[in-house]
Amino acid sequence: MPERFYNMRPKDPQDTVQACSDIPLKSYYTAEDIPDSHAERVNVAPGEAPYHRGFHPSGYRSKPWRIFQLSGFGKPEDENERIKFLLKNGETGFIMEHDRNTADHCYNVDHPEVLARREDVGLTGAVMQSVRDTAICLDGLPMDTSFGHAGGAVVQHAPFALAAYWAVAKKRGYDLSKLAGTGQSDFNLTYLGCVTKQQIPTDAGLRFNGDIIEFCTEHLPRWVPVSIAGYNGADTGLTPDQELGSLFANAAEYLDEIKLRGRIPLEVAARGCGGVSFRASIKIFEEACKMRAARLMWSDLLKQRYGINDERVANLRIHCVTAGSKMAYQQPMNNLVRGALMAVSAVLGGVQSLGVSGYDEALSIPSEHAHQMSVRIQQILMEETGLTDVTDPLGGSYYVETLTAQLVEKAWAFFEEILARGGYLACLDSGWLHAKAEENQHKEFMQTESGEANIVGVTMAHDDSSPFEIDGFIGSDDAFDVALERLKEVKRTRHEKGAKTALKDLERVCRGSDNIMPVMMDCLEAEATLGEVGDVYREVFGDWRTPIQC
Fold first, then answer.
1. Going by C-beta distance under 8 Å and a sequence separation of 6 or more, which residues neighbour residue 164?
2. Confidence of residue 451 (pLDDT cuts 50, 70, 90)
3. Which of 100, 164, 177, 192 has a CA 20 to 30 Å removed from the CA of 48?
4. What pTM was estimated for this model as a whole?
5. Is the alpha carbon torsion for 50, 55, 56, 61 positive or negative?
6. Count helices and strands in the chain by DSSP H and E runs
7. CA angle (542, 546, 547) in 5-degree steps
């Protein structure tokens, strides 16, 4: 029989089945399986501590999740056009993506490392080397009414990206105290996942993030200053319980730092770093339970470790993106189904904003059609399925409540192990977290290779013919050339003395202990460039000593 007519092989009832978090799964569950400590919380109403049942009593009935897609490529005007396309198609917030060849390392396009791969410039985001580029990208966008993500996912890039966004907003007359949006500045991305060639040491990164939290407290109270991305830890290889444990260990690092500084109330800082990002993968129930577990853990962490009970702070805000690493390049249209099902898991878990990976993610950044379909998936779930009718529709399920409790237990164990090893940043510096992620990657690979785990269209039900090929992403081929000319133009026409003075002030602040953000704002307003800021970092802080060998 041809392989394409494959029928699922029944499993032996005695076979061991495990969740991704290495939790053995029974064939069915009863009330007796729910741990006593968790059973007491099952009947807590949504919107009440510890919030595992949802962020609000009416849930999505009154507060639909934000449709929040990552977008960007090529020149700033290319990214501007794509964001406008997404907003027109129903996106309710926008995420700017910066070119990773330049942004991650804080390089200008004339840096030798970028010149050596000039063909790649603009493939993974728009090239934005100065405030002029950011202004082009934001042209005509509703900064005052849309929830914007300014980019700056990487720790060392965040101060520049945020300052550029805010400088444009100020120039357009917006009151920064009323501006809503989010930064990211996430350690998991380039210290654990896509490790860059040059980035500042982790202690300097912690200082930067502490400075951003304090600056936003004073000047941008509606802005989410940092967003810890469990997503990047999970896509690197961490299991759901490890994603939870490491994320909250990172949060504890921030809160301990802010407490040590003693400049702002700890409750305010907790609110600032209480907007996080998780990955929604393909195991629907485990992923939904992970979101429920995250809310519960955050509430307990604040109450038990920091004595914080304020519901506005203890009620975790979750952004979620479906797992790009689970998208296959074989039979890519299957990824529409994967994306929709992963989005269902996030919605069942009660996230407040959501992005769906493009069906062509394994091949390129999203094409215009793939981006549109990612929005349409969310609109169908929101408008046609009934998923928004009831808050926490899985609440009370014997299986869901048991698995939620088990995830919490395992995640706290991982959290405590991280703290026992010196904390989250120490586990990055030592390579211990990298080893954990690699171990899980190897295990998943071997399960796929052996046939223990199947991927439709990849390890089974595949066909050598390709009747459903996709067009894929078509970008711009002039991103490097335009960026180079614009860099020259900025340096030729700016007030050079003002730029140099601002950069000297930045170096002075980096060598001291003042908050970096006021002088970073000065740098952007004086049109200092990304590479010049990066040069200051490299001179003052040096480079992180990577604990892994590539």
1. 128, 130, 131, 133, 134, 150, 524
2. confident
3. 177
4. 0.95
5. negative
6. 22, 10
7. 140
